[in-house]
Amino acid sequence: MAAEVAPVVLGIDLDGVCVDTYERLRLVAAEWFERDADSLTPWVSFGLSEWGVRSPQEHADLLRFAVTQRDLFGSAPPMPGARRVLRRLMQEGHRVRIIARRLALANEPALAAKQTLAWLDLYAIPYADVCFTDGSTDVGADIYVDDAPDEIARLRGAGRYAICFGNSTNEHVASPRAMGWDEVYGFVRERARAAGEAP
Ligand SMILES: [Mg+2]
Predict the structure, then answer these.
(1) φ/ψ (deg, to 5) at 198
(2) Which residue of 48, 83, 133, 155 has the fewest CB atoms within a 10 Å radius of its CB?
């Protein structure tokens, strides 16, 4: 009898999908700009112009400060549902491949990797592999979950199945678009079931 749901490799983006990186960065930015955190909107676009970041250089400086001085990747809160749903998917036989596109972010690869692995332990995020990349490598997954419009477009353009993890930076991205981890689970089950029924 054919398996009802075929085991798949899941390529799971960290920032904005497993980790609420923007929420932690918002508090660091408040300190950086000497502003009340409540005055910084959580609804930001990629360049953080809503917080007053005026240039790519300032964006890089803020990120570097956050990583090297405020443990950004080690102290950001987990996205609700991430560990619960990932644990369930692992228990169902799927392989969780974490994608950390953080190597080029603050130009601190060793520190970024150390903070990332400690964070995965701290919040008991289950995984089989962790791929540290500069963002240009395809990690060979069957299903991707990502929140970056550019990355989703790149993956879909290459014929990959990519679920958009919905937030304020990707409101224009087409379905499959999940609002939270329970919807991610539904999309993965549907796709894995279709794979299991394929001849
Ligand atoms: Mg992301």
Answers:
(1) -65, 140
(2) 133
- Using pLDDT thresholds of 50, 70 and 90, give the confidence band for residue 41: very high
User: What does pTM read for this prediction?
Assistant: 0.91
Q: How confident is the model at residue 2 (pLDDT cuts 50, 70, 90)?
A: very low
How far does residue 179's CA lie from ligand 1's centre (Å)?
Answer: 14
Nearest CA among 7, 8, 17 for reference residue 183? 17
Retrieve residue 173's tokens: 């991205």
Calculate how far, in angstroms, residue 20's C-alpha sits from the geometric centre of ligand 1: 10
What distance in Å separates the CA atoms of residue 121 and residue 123, rounded to the nearest whole number? 6
Task: Examine the residue annotation and report whether 121 is marked as an active-site residue of this protein.
Answer: no
**Would you place residue 1 in the very low, low, confident or very high pLDDT band (cuts 50, 70, 90)?**
very low
- CATH number for 9-20+78-197 (one of 3.40.50.300, 3.40.50.1980, 1.10.1370.40, 3.40.50.1000): it is 3.40.50.1000
pLDDT of residue 4: 66
